[in-house]
Specification:
Blueprint: H1 4-17, E1 19-26, E2 29-41, E3 46-50, E4 64-69, E5 72-81, E6 85-89, E7 92-93, E8 106-107, E9 115-118, E10 121-128, E11 132-138, E12 150-157, E13 160-175, E14 178-187, H2 190-212
Antiparallel strand pairs: 1-2, 2-3, 3-6, 4-5, 5-6, 5-7, 8-10, 9-10, 9-12, 10-11, 11-14, 12-13, 13-14
Length: 216
């Protein structure tokens, strides 16, 4: 938060509303729900919420709960939880604007990876949407993945191979010796966009099934 006054104003508004519409992202798929304030611990700077059973299973894998207020996106970090209650930190501004995404994004399957050829260089997709693809690779300088470069892409999507064009919109560190590359699609045939959309729908079903198997 910018300052403590803004923080307490936000908390006061949430307290008056009592309930908060939130989203948790599991493998990039948003799981939405509603949490309700039970108590605020000012000393520990924690908020206790009545849990929503739809989002509780995902908290085994992620500790971030997103919500939107007055056009801004905030994040609550989960400290502890059970089936009835969730304890979080006070809200802070979210650097990742996930709630403003236009297209649904999904993590790719480790058992069934997506191969991405970028100007003939072989990489693997970490996630994909109808608008672009995210790639995790070694932190090695390669001309084909420099920011702003336009690329010829070939994506091997299960039983299909899709040829399209894209542009590298960012390249940033994602860990020791590892970088994340974001490529935006610039030229995609409609039939190929439909294939990507079908893959995304299939992965959403797989991820939803996986979540349903979780136990708190």
């Amino acid at each position: 938060m910018k300052d403590s006054k803004s923080l307490w104003k936000l908390i006061g508004e949430i307290k008056r509303k009592k309930k908060l519409e939130v989203a948790v992202f599991y493998e990039e798929v948003p799981i939405t729900g509603t949490i309700e304030i039970i108590d605020i611990d000012e000393t520990l700077e924690q908020i206790i919420w009545k849990a929503d059973k739809k989002i509780v299973p995902t908290l085994k894998e992620t500790r971030h709960i997103y919500f939107k207020h007055n056009g801004e996106i905030y994040i609550l970090t989960v400290i502890a939880y059970d089936q009835k209650e969730i304890a979080t930190s006070f809200p802070s501004y979210a650097l990742d604007q996930k709630l403003n995404r236009t297209y649904v994004r999904v993590k790719t399957s480790e058992k069934d990876p997506i191969l991405v050829m970028v100007d003939g260089y072989q990489l693997y997709a970490d996630d994909i949407s109808e608008a672009g693809v995210g790639i995790i690779t070694s932190e090695e300088e390669k001309e084909c993945v420099q920011e702003g470069k336009e690329c010829q892409l070939e994506i091997k999507l299960r039983n299909d191979t899709i040829k399209l064009k894209g542009i590298v919109v960012y390249r940033r560190k994602a860990g020791k010796g590892v970088i994340r590359i974001g490529i935006k699609f610039t030229e995609v045939k409609q039939k190929d966009r439909d294939k990507i959309a079908k893959y995304i729908m299939d992965r959403q079903r797989e991820i939803a099934k996986k979540i349903s198997l979780f136990k708190v």
